Structures are given as structure tokens and as C-alpha cells.
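Task: complex structure prediction.
Instruction: return C-alpha cells for all chains below.
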Amino acid sequence: MKDVLELLRSVRRGRGTGRGRPEGSSDERPVRTDGGAVDERSTLRRWIDSDLVQSAPFWLPPFLLMGFFVYAAIGWNFLLSLTDHSGFSDPDYTNLGFHNYWAMLDDPEMWSATRNTFVLLVGFTVACLVVGLVLALLLDREIRFGRSFRTIYLLPFALSFIVTAQFWRWMYNFDNGIINQFIGLFGLGPYSWLGSPRLVLGSVIFALVWQFSGYTMIIYLAALRAIPNDQYEAARVDGASALRMYWRVIIPQLRPAMVSASVVLMLFALKAFDFLYAISGGYRPRRGADILATKMVRESFSRSEWAYGSSIAILLFVLSLAVIAPYLYNQYKRGNL
Amino acid sequence: MSEKSVTTETPTAADGTIEGIGLRTIGLYATLLGLIAFYLIPIESGLVTSIKTSEALRETWPFLPPGLSGITFEKWQVAYEFLAPGMVNSLLFTIPSTILCAIFGSMAAYGLTLVKWRGQIAVLALFIAGIFVPYQAVIVPLYEFWAQWAQLDTRLAFLWGLPLLDEHHATILELIITHTAYGIPIITLLFRSQYKTMSEEMIEAARLDGASVWRVYRRIVLPLSVPMFAVVFIFQFTQIWNEFLFSLTIIGSVNNPAASATLILSGLGEALEGTDYPLRMAGAFITAFPTLLVYVLFADKFAEGVRV
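Output:
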């Protein structure tokens, strides 16, 4: 901290002429090496002193590490998806083709996995947005223990998919599960929540909403706090009712938060593999709960159909891209990036 | 939680009767407590189940604690024996990759945010898009890279004779590198969100004063980012500890001596005769213990990391 102050003090002593080269420096104080009216340095020297090169040691190592494991890996994955690579044959990079992608069209498992992926994507995202909004609106006021409530609602988000899947397998247990015992009080059930193909997706979505609605709540709460006070005042002066206040003043202002939360939620849904793996006890998912993520891992790691698995991976990547590219572009346009 | 919050109350509440306000408040708290039950019952029922004898398991409601005679800690002991090596492995890769992520993320955010150069937006876009790449899109190449190409276990064979080092640490090293690479984008964004709010004049002025890029980082940016480092450590520790797909891909089998806690938990208590739920529940709590601890101690900082 002392260093900062010292720097600041020396800055105040100097002439803050703004960015760029100081006009013909007449004083003897050392100026930046690229300063001075006449730049006598060689091109190489100037290049070395440029901000691009000077900052490269900071961003280039992380960039190379990430670039290799993320982007080069995706490229390699795409190449693999064009081969016949399987547990029994090495990839032949000289004979490439899109046959794996055509094979997807004839694969009934792919159709149901795609359908389930979309059901999960939409159902989970919408439910999380709604539950999170309710939580945030309930907590966005001065109340006792407000902080504790928030902490508890966000708690499941700190747990891993594998841990929460254990809890929910037990909740949904046919004989001893709480849910069946509870609805039994009203003379309903028992239902096979995870065993019935018609119920399983809903059950999974319900459990995932339990885990992620706290996350949505946090996003909304931050956005609610950013709404300026006078907007409430103005609406109150106009005599707006509570419902109108929510509908016309508060919720429209939450739209950016809603958009960014739903992007993140959709990406969670696209890779909900961990949860389904753990709640099914292995590579073979519950009947009716196969999504693209589980299908991809099963083809690769259980059936050793590496090339086919890679092609599903590319499909998943394209889907994620379809979700995030418009979002990122929009954020860039607004200058939020 | 400012004064503004109060104004979200309906205007009618102000001219309502005292009982009216009381009813509203009671309703609010009842709802909030009901929600607490919703969020805690799965966890609470897991906790009571984990200490039940098989007899108590049959006889009591799943969310009610067992009678005194129905309590046993045997499952916790068994689960701990299974999970202890996995916990050590998870710590061995989680802590180094969390630290590396924080260092790299802070450096990248600085080089891309506070130092201005042409074309940085393109590099930045690659960093940020990296957050959203689904792990599925890379696990096959990752698996091939580590298993076929890198083969750290044979390449580093000279190390395994040293004390405290073992062959399975090659797998741990692979996990450290992989988690670091995948953590960099999100951590860069977290640091960037803070660096964007830093006073640009201060940094510009320091630069004009002759401070090098490195000096500005060390003397101005780094001291100011200490709180952000705390947020990042807490958030990323939880993320990496909880991660499963990379463990499954790179470690592969529960029987691998490098198996992580999540990987062991995923197969715990699974037998042909049925699932041993009390054992699984005990295992779930042991696995979640480090993250729960971090969460309970630093909930606010964790939430701060989530928000970006």
C-alpha cells in the first residue's frame, strides 16, 4: 500500500498530460522510453517497448496453456470425429469423412437424447429463473436473518453433482424415499420417480432446480440492488400498486440479469452428465433420461466408439456456441466485455 | 439490503392496520421458513440416514432421526476408509490448480484489461468464450493426449524412486495441468471484472511516470487485488473439488490409486444386492466436507464469485 501512495504522490508531482507522447520534453526527469518528440530508437527497440510486447509475458502463458487444452483440443476432436477411430482401430487421418454425422441421423438413441436434452434445457432453465426470481423478490428487503436465508438457499450450489445426486436418489427411493412417504399421506403414489420413463426427466429437473435456484437468486439480488432508488420513488408517487411495481418497474430491469443467468443455466443443463451418471449409477442412464452429454460419454468411454463420441461432442459444442455466441456478441456491443 | 428495499413494500401496507402488516410479515417468514425446509430436507435426511442402523432405517421415517438404540457410526467409518485416499488425491490436485488458476487469471486479466494494445479484444474474446466450452467437447482428445502422447508416468519415471513420490502422482499432475487450463478463462473474467473498475488514470499516470508494465502490476494492481484473490480461491477450490468428468476421463477407474473423492463416491455402496444408502450418505458428507467448510466460513465471498 505504501508503494501505491508513493507512486501516486510522484504522479501528482509530474504532469499528467494524458495518454500518448509528452510534447517535446524539456525537463530532465526520466520519461517513458517511447516518449520524446524525436524517437531515435530502432524499429525493433520500439516494438519491444510496445505495450503489446510488454504485456505479453502476462497474458501469453495462460493463453497458450488454455489455447492448447481448449481450442487445440476442440480442433483435434473435430478431426477425430471425421475418422473411424474406435477401441479397435487407431485414427486414420488420411481418410476423413462426415460418416459419423450421417450415422447420427439413423441412430434412434440420438433422437431421444436430443429431445431429452431440449426438454431438460428449457424446463430446467425456466424453472430456475422463476424460482430464483421468487427467492430474490422475497429477500430483497430489510428482514431479520436475511443473510442466513440467502446462505441456505445457495448452499446446494456449493455441493457437487455427485453429492446432490446421492441425496436425491434417496429422496426418490421407491420404498423408503421421503417423497413417496409424503404423498402417501394423501393417499397418492407410490411412484417410481426415477424408474418410470415418463417421470424421470421431471424428477431430474426438480432436483437440479433445487441445486441451482440459489444461483439464480444471487444473480437477481445483485441486479435488484443496482436499481436506483428514485425509480421506486417515482412509481410510488404515481400511485403504482405493488403488482404493477413488480411488473412494470422491477422485472423489466432484471432482463439483463435474466439473460446472463439463463445462458449459464443452459450450459449447466447441456453438461448435466455428472448428475445423471451419479443418479443412475453408471454409464447407462435411466430409461427416458438419456441426454446428449450422457450419450456422448457412453459412446466414447463405455462402447469405445471414439470417433462417434467425438462427433456427438462436436454437436454439443455447436449447441453451446449457438447459446453463447449471440449473448457474447450482444455483451460486446453493449461494451460489457 | 439498503433503504430502497423497504420501499418495495406496497404503498397500501403503509396505511394498513398494524395487524395487516403483522400478517404480511408472518406470511413472509412462513414462506421463507418453508423454503428453508425445501432446501435443507434432502441434506438433513441424508445426514440422519447415514447414522441409522439397518433396523432403524426400516422403521423410522427417512427424515426423522433414529432412536438412541438405532444410531451407528459404522457407515461413516467404512465410508471414510474408502474415501480417505481419494480425499488426499483431490486435495493434491485441487490446491495447486486453484493457486495456479489464480496467478494465471490475474496476470491474464491485467495484460488484457489494464494494458491497452490493438487487437486485445480478439484475444480476450477467446479467453471468455473458453468459459463456455462444454467439457464433453474435449474429453476424447484429452484422454488420448494424456494416455497416448504425454505418458507422464513413463516420462517422469526417474521421479518415482524419490521419497513421497509415486507413479500415480503422474495422473495427479495431469489433473493439475488440465484443471488449471480450464480454470483460466473464468478466473480471468473474475479478475477482469475487478480490474475494469480500477482507476485508469492512476495506472496511466504511473505508466507516464516511467513505471514499467511489470512494476505497475506488482506495485499497484497486485496489492489492490488481494480481496479478489480470496474470492477466486474460494470459488475455484469448490469448483475443482466438485469436478467429476475430468476425473472420470483422466483417472478412469475407481481402483486407480489416483482416484479422486468424487470418483470414489460415484461408485460407493453399489452392490448387486442393492444400494447401501446409509453408506452413500455418509460418503456424500465426507466428500462434501471441504467445500461445505469453505462455504459456511466464506459464504459471502463465494456468492461474490458466483455473481460474475
